[in-house]
Amino acid sequence: MESVLNVENVWKIYYYIALFATILFLLKLIIFTVVGGDSEVSTDFTTETDTDISFNFVSFQSLVSFFMGFGWMGYGCLRQFESSLWSAFIAAFLMGVVFMLGSAFLMFMTKKLEKNVSKDKQTAVKQIGRAYTNFEPNGLGQIEVEISGQLSVVKASNSTDQKINAFDLIRVVKVENDLLYIEKVKK
């Protein structure tokens, strides 16, 4: 009686695992590209959550990545490199783990991009920026200024009796109640 686990049968298993995982990966990619992958609800409140790699390590995406790497490496080892069954399995398993870790790492780095950056408006005091809109004397408008090292457009108040036109250079003189007070820079 011939063994069921021979190279001619096993490469087909790797091939079908790889093909199925790749189809799932492509379907997920197409669906999230067309429909969108946002699972957040837009509301009036904001929350800040921290995630770590353990949250992303065992997910649908990482499991699909594991089986893609596992299947294609096993198939390649048996069909192209003519490896033994055990060496093909070990190489496939290691490649699956690499794909899984890579997927988890990419998801972790993507989640870091979603974090809200808090800006300390006090860092804008004495900064020079530009008026984004026209300001009437003691009026409100918007300015473009660097806050916490990031160029931002924020609401401001003209603290002088002088009109400030859009694109004039301004200086932030104080911050009170989360509102920046500005004056025109004299040339």
Task: Considering the chains and any ligands shown, give keywords for the structure.
5-stranded mixed barrel, 4 helices, alpha+beta, 2 domains, 187 residues
Describe this structure in words.
This protein has helices at residues 7-34, 53-57, 60-79, 85-113; strands at residues 128-131, 140-147, 150-158, 169-176, 179-184. It is of the alpha+beta class and 187 residues long. The chain folds into two domains: 7-39 and 49-113; 121-184, Nucleic acid-binding proteins (OB fold (Dihydrolipoamide Acetyltransferase, E2P)), CATH 2.40.50. Strands 1-2-3-5-4 form a five-stranded mixed β-barrel. Helix 3 runs antiparallel to helix 4 (85-113). The chain is rod-shaped, with a radius of gyration of 29 Å. The model is unreliable at 39-55 (pLDDT under 50).
TL;DR of this structure?
With 187 residues, the chain is an alpha+beta fold. It contains 4 helices and 5 strands.
Q: What general form does the structure show?
A: rod-shaped
| Mean pLDDT value | 85
Distance between the amino and carboxyl termini:
96 Å
Order of helices and strands: HHHHEEEEE
Q: Strand portion, in percent?
A: 15-25%
Ranges with pLDDT <50 over ≥5 residues? Answer: 39-55
Number of strand elements: 5
| Helix content, binned percent | 40-55%
| Category by helix and strand content | alpha+beta
**DSSP helical segment count:** 4
Provide the domain count: 2
Main β-sheet, spatial strand arrangement? 1-2-3-5-4
Largest sheet: 5 strands, mixed, barrel
The radius of gyration computed from the alpha-carbon positions, rounded to a whole number of angstroms, is: 29 Å
